[in-house]
Amino acid sequence: MAVALDTREPEDPPPVAILWDQLTLQQSDIHFGIRQIVFVGDGLTGAGVGTIQTYWLPSDATRLYLGFVDGYCGQSHGTYGDVSGSISATLNYSGCLWLLNQPKSVSVCSKGGAALSVAIAGISPAEFQWQVESSPNLWADVSDGTIQYAGGQLDVSRSESDSLQLFLNTTPGARPIRFRCIVTNSCGSITSEPATLVPCQSDLTCDNVVDDADFVVFVAAYNVLDCADPAMAVGCPADLNGDGLVDDADFVVFVSAYNNLGC
Ligand SMILES: [Ca+2]
Ligand SMILES: [Ca+2]
């Protein structure tokens, strides 16, 4: 017999018993719940013959216990002391579909690249479809190509793979965008948690952190002041609020990112 548990220890009340009038020992597929005890026997659909039975673990199971039945088949229940012997069991465990790694949020400089990835386990083949949050909690499939949005554009590739590739070309004030991945195989579909792509204008050196190196670049632009000045860096990237000047208002934005070592 077997019982599956999640992270909690068994507690009262016990789970509902499996309805054996709807389920027979000859059944090849047996689904059971957390803390429900199921009879495995020899694991075959017949007594010593037949096909191997498949036991479907609940999705939230973290532990599976196998053991003997004591006082089985009408005999009186005994004490643990009179139980002896051993069994050997061969288990073939195959997962259906689950996510090993969720995509991680990332901050990227205004003209930088990023990848959002998932890792899955389960039955192959699996298909991937990335989605973008077009408005709060509204999701749309992403296609390879260019996404235009207020504050810039994103070049997207590998939108039907386990690793979405993004290249940003954003302007000051570009908002963060959330993506998620839907994975489908013969078992069904699962949806990843959303990951946020954060445009980080203050990362002037495009190395994913905002630190002293960015400060040096910022100060140089601050000293020039006017984005129209030929001495200013092309594109005036340190104009963090997009008003044509690199001044104290931009410094406030920069310091916030600097103090956090990023956006
Ligand atoms: Ca940097
Ligand atoms: Ca400015």
Which ions and ligands are bound to the chains?
calcium ion
Q: Please report which band the strand proportion falls in: under 5%, 5-15%, 15-25%, 25-35%, 35-45% or over 45%.
A: 25-35%
In total, the number of domains comes to 3
Task: List the total number of helices.
Answer: 2
Mean pLDDT: 87
Mass-distribution shape: elongated
Q: What percent of the residues sit in helical stretches (DSSP H or I)?
A: under 10%
Main beta sheet, described? 6 strands, mixed
The ordered H/E elements are EEEEEEEEEEEEEEEEEHH
What labels describe this entry?
263 residues, mainly beta, Immunoglobulin-like, six-stranded mixed β-sheet, 32% strand, binds calcium ion
Task: Describe the model.
- With 263 residues, the protein is mainly β.
- The protein has helices spanning 212-224, 248-259, and strands at residues 2-5, 29-31, 37-38, 54-56, 63-66, 97-101, 106-108, 113-117, 119-122, 127-135, 138-141, 145-149, 152-157, 163-170, 177-185, 188-191, 195-199.
- It folds into 3 domains: 1-93, no CATH class; 97-199, Sandwich (Immunoglobulin-like); 212-259, no CATH class.
- It has 2 helices and 17 strands.
- The strands form 5 sheets. Strands 7, 10, 11, 15, 16 and 17 form a 6-stranded mixed beta sheet that branches. It has a 4-stranded antiparallel beta sheet with strand order 8-14-13-12, with no helix packed on it.
- The longest helix is centred in the C-terminal third of the chain and has 13 residues, at 212-224.
- The radius of gyration is 29 Å and the shape is elongated.
- The mean pLDDT is 87.
- The protein binds calcium ion (2 copies).
